[in-house]
Amino acid sequence: MRLSEFSGKEIIGLDTGEKMGVIGHSDLEINTSTGEITAIILPGTTFFGFGKRKDDVVIPWNAIVKIGPDMIIVGTSKDGQYVSGK
């Protein structure tokens, strides 16, 4: 899959069904030795630029359960920790 095919996909938490972010607004962490993606980094947000900025969310690549045409499903546990999707 090409990087351009990821752009615009929504990231959805499997346990909650909530939208966590969009790939086009995130960064990818890449292992420079192997060229593999190791994590998706969702930027922390503020409410219309006001208030304290939330921390970035780092989603390990192995937490991805399924990549579909419009969204990426990420495995989470009840306590909000990421679980392996593979």
List keywords for this structure.
three-stranded antiparallel beta sheet; 86 residues; four-stranded mixed beta sheet; single chain; globular; mainly beta; SH3 type barrels; 1 helix; 5% helix
Any overview of this molecule?
The protein is mainly beta and 86 residues long. It has one domain: Roll (SH3 type barrels), CATH 2.30.30.240. It contains one helix and seven strands. It has a four-stranded mixed beta sheet, with no helix packed on it. The protein has a three-stranded antiparallel beta sheet with strand order 3-4-5, with no helix packed on it. The mean pLDDT is 80.
* CATH architecture annotation: Roll
Main sheet specs: 4 strands, mixed
- Residue-averaged pLDDT: 80
CATH top level is Mainly Beta
SSE string, helices as H and strands as E: HEEEEEEE
CATH fourth-tier homologous superfamily: PRC-barrel domain
Strand residues, percent: 25-35%
Determine Rg (CA atoms, Å): 13 Å
Distance between the termini: 18 Å
What's the CATH topology name? SH3 type barrels
What level of helicity do the residues show? under 10%
| Coarse morphology | globular
Output the number of helix runs.
Answer: 1
* Domain unit count: 1
* Number of E-type strands: 7
Structural class, by secondary structure, is: mainly beta
Taking pLDDT < 50 over at least 5 consecutive residues as the criterion, the unreliable ranges are none
Strand order of the largest sheet: 2-1-7-6
Oligomer, anyone?
single chain
